[in-house]
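Write out this protein's structure.
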Amino acid sequence: MLAVASVALAVALTASKAASQESYFPAHGEAARIITVSAAGQAAIEFDVLTQAIVVKETGPKQTVARFGEVYAFSPAFIAVRVDEPVRLTFSNLQPDDDHDFALMANNGESKPMMWVGLPALKKTSYVLIFHKPGLFRFLCLRHQPEMQGQIEVLPR
């Protein structure tokens, strides 16, 4: 129940942010001690993260589409990096008719995303992330829950 409430609050917060801008990076506070995000910079490692349609209205089974609508996933859904190692995530939204987003959640259970970016249809979007603390961080598309999510495992140096 708490997880559902957390996602609902995150969706509401993100929707209000999304109305005014296409991205949200941590600027200060606890989030800045956990992660640094930039739109450019050098990276030690790179990952291409694709948005994939699992079930679509045009071809999916009627019982699945009627109950869930279109179903999407991130690929890969699991990424491992090291503390203080700059990693470039390049998101490719391959759907011509659906926008997605990427919300990176703190591993302390807080419901507000540490980072949020819109992923427009048929576009590539890149960001360099540097995690300053180890842990397991959840990421998700707030528009396509509960299926579209994944994890970033940040390992000690």
